[in-house]
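Sample A.
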Amino acid sequence: MAEIAVHDDAHAHDAHGHGDHGHGDHGAHVTSTGLSNNKLAMWLFLGTECLLFGGLISTYMLYRGRNGDGPGPNQVFDIPLTSVSSFVLLMSSLTMVLAVNAAKAKDDRNTNLWLTATALLGSLFVGGQVYEFTVFYHEGLGFTTSLFSSSFFTLTGFHGVHVTLGVIMLMALVGIIVRSRIPGDKAEVVELVGLYWHFVDVVWVVIFTLVYLIPA
């Protein structure tokens, strides 16, 4: 009888251990894809953004030669200026990678440093875009000037809004880290913002190539 009691106690202990292990797995919130719920949600969001930008790019490619009486792309585009702005934005991807690595190493100081650097580079890009739009307007290219101008300003302006939102997210994240108020895994939160930022950069590479480098 004593052996049976010991066996029952051991079985109950094993069952309790398995229950705790299952509860720990549930707490990790990992989906069947191996990604956390937050990462999966971000990838789904970026997927919808791909469809949206794909539609805007297709619309521009359809209308880029229809400039009517207004100036055409070859008359207003300043390729050197836009190339510099593009380089600045691409460099911000590097600083974002450094921020993610610092966050994984639990180095808050360098995380904030590289996040701030990324936000500054993004702000420089947006500033360059605003300057470009101002020059285009003074040269007679407004939003309603032609189908070309409407599709161009919609596409590049929409991307500029995304970069601006990214800058706001970066600076808000810096503030949250300083106050130590990040819920959950800090490194994952920085990585999620990084995914969004890299997406914005990749989209700009496509836009810059199709809009500025390929002649109409």
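Sample B, a different protein:
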Amino acid sequence: MKEVYHHFPLQSLIKGDHEKMLWHTIHVVKPEVIPLIVTEHVDFQTKGNAEMTDLTSKVAAAVERSGLDAGIAVIFASGATGAVTTIEYEPGLVEDMLGALERIAPEEIEYAHNQRWGDGNGHSHIRASMIGPSLTIPFSDGKLMLGTWQQIVFLDLDNRPRYRRIVVQIMGE
């Protein structure tokens, strides 16, 4: 247990030239809680071309293995052409996401990145930058606090198959 005392002015009384402060003291007893950070990795091979992979069960299992009761899980995609988000992971929305990405950053237009590097994945970098490389999900009672139809997904936005590593960092108590 940790004991903490907080002192703060409650009221000021002025008598003649002297000011007297009345102080209030709060005594707080806190149980010792040691926050922990647990880091795991999810490794897998992808096909590229906006392939979407459901990571929900792997992240949930990592949170359970951590032994932590409450906190946050940060899911981070290493690499410049991958992204992490949530979606209702079903075939219709997967198809809709692919269509939206093509409208936002079409593959067939010219990108300065492609002219400089010749790898044809300028659209991949733009798409990944717009979605983002990380996501933070709270958890309580050792369970992710996702909505009923909400899943955690990784999008491989590169134009070729890739080996991918996702970092899952769990922080809590």
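Observation for Sample B: The mean pLDDT is 88.
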